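Q: I'm a student working through a structural biology exercise. My instructor gave each of us a protein and asked us to get a predicted structure, then write a short paragraph describing it. Mine is DNA repair protein RecN. I'm not confident about reading structure output yet, so if you can add a plain explanation after the tokens, that would really help. Here is the sequence I was given:
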Amino acid sequence: MLTRLSIRNYALIDSLDIHFDNGLNILTGETGAGKSIIMGGLSLILGQRVENRYFFNQDKKCVIEGYFDVSNYELDGFFRQYDLDYERETIMRREISVDGKSRAFVNDTPVTLQVLKALAEKLIDIHSQHATLQLNTEAFQLLTLDSVARNRQVRERYAEKYHAYNRLVTRLSAMKAEAQQANTEADYQQYLYDELAKANLEADEQARLEAEQQQLEHAEEIKRSLYGAVYALRDQEINATALLKEALHHIQHAERFMPAMEPQAQRLESCFIELKDLAEEVSRIEQSVVLDEVRLQEISERLSLLYALQQKHRVDGVEALIDLRELLKAKLEAQSSNEAEIQRLEAEAERLKTETLELAAQLSDSRHAVVQQVEDQVAGTLREVGMPHSTLRIQISRLGDSALRESGQDKVEFLFSANKGMEPQPVGKVASGGELSRLMMAIKSLIAKTSALPTIIFDEIDTGISGEVALKVAEIMERLAQHMQVIAITHLPQIASKGNAHFKVYKIESADKTVTNIAQLTNEERVVELAQMLSGANPGETALQHAAELLGGR
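A: Happy to help. First, here is the predicted structure for DNA repair protein RecN. I'll explain a few features afterward.
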């Protein structure tokens, strides 16, 4: 419930501080006095965007605060959800700086406009002349049925399942698209992998084979060279080994007479032994070197395969081919895994869809169950406000299983007829502005009885009505005020007379400024205000008496 509204430095308002009653609050004033300005200020703390920066004082920021008693509306969970301090008297504040930057607060905690708006939607419903456009929207028509059906828990469970199902379907669709793309490439990838796997690649084989190929291709030349080395080391008549042996013999002979030559003798002996051993080793190698045409052919073919694979895949080296083979293997395994995951998700999606459809059916049943109640109660209210022959018909049709929506499976249409003998048609096609206003009020009054909304604001919805009808509308507002706080901006004295609190909006004009102000009227002041609404600025005794009669015992 809105207990207090403070507006500072906004449009024609320097400073206003309004304390509202918990019942029916009336705001009156001449056209242009500033009632819409007050509503504009209120809309800012309800999360509306700043359309302009028209400040009373262009050098100061604009501050708007709304004080709400939320103690009876079970909003603790909302405050926990957004990590806000829960206070029985909650303050929603909006600050707009001179450069147009806007900040919002709930109980002095900064919040986004989305959070501010979400909280406002749980506290206030503003019903203006333009709100009748909502009547034609399916969202509002569903809201009407759901409010009367009190099916919030089912709707929340349905919404949870619906969004989970949608997320899963989106994921499944993406995976299937990827799988389809992969399938178009799968055969080729499998061919490439099989080709590389069949090649039995080894990391170092190319270098080893190239070395062996070079040896086989030059086997004769290698053999001649090695033979020449053995000949020079060992087999020639005067060879290196024989000469070294002769030198060793001479050094050893000298050593007998010159012991200091022992190290040189030992070194020369080691050289002789090493050279003799080297000659034997080179001889064995020379004998092992053969020209193997078969082996050379095998190596050439193997290297040709390796070179061809590298050229085909545009890589350098066998190691890169092995990496490619493992990558292809991983892709093929992943594709197989994805197919299994797709099958699992399809089963999960089918399960979720079944659960969602079951909840959609419960939601639909709850709506069907209150159709007659809504039709009858709206018709009853319309009879009270001068539309005795009006008819509201509610049609609900079930969409197919493939047409699940966030609101369920129902397609709802309100059909209306204001006059006897006329077939009900879609609301916007058959009703005048005044008829739409009364129909909207009838529906809102019905919703108010079944919702926990603390406050409803009627912003000049009395357009097109007068006399006895206006009195009936006033009585409906009075009844509404027994269940919730009602704030009504009106030009009709019949409605204004029903208020528990009556505020007058007026302008004060000076030489250089025009200021919008508001004051709560005393009983005596209310009589004068109602008389002026009845007959003009200078009411006579008859108007004053009529106004007093309207107020009755107030």
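A: Here are two points you could use in your paragraph. The first strand starts at residue 2 and ends at 10. Residues 182-334 form one domain. It's a good idea to check both against the output above yourself.
Q: Great, thank you!
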